[in-house]
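Entry 14: structure prediction run for L-ascorbate oxidase. Input pasted below.
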Amino acid sequence: MGHGKWTPAGRRTYNLQDAVSRHTIQVYPRSWSAIMLTFDNAGLWSLRSEMWERHYLGQQLYVSVVSPARSLRDEYNMPDDALLCGDVASLPKPPPYV
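Run finished. Output tokens:
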């Protein structure tokens, strides 16, 4: 965590040895927070703001953890009518699982 804008020099302050496990973090005004994520199973994970007005403005990130088995047990196919926007709109959809 630090004041102002994040820079690559901030990586020197990361606690990679005994990081505290949390479900939420705080990001104070005009500051930043670095987080280390551990995904314990395959699927689609959502990282988002708790405040609806920020969530609505797009402060949300989806992370897809793909299983090497490519099984419907872990994640369903992307719906055919899924809306894509931005840079991913022109990319091909991932191959179906079955």
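Notes: The radius of gyration is 17 Å. Will compare against the previous run tomorrow.
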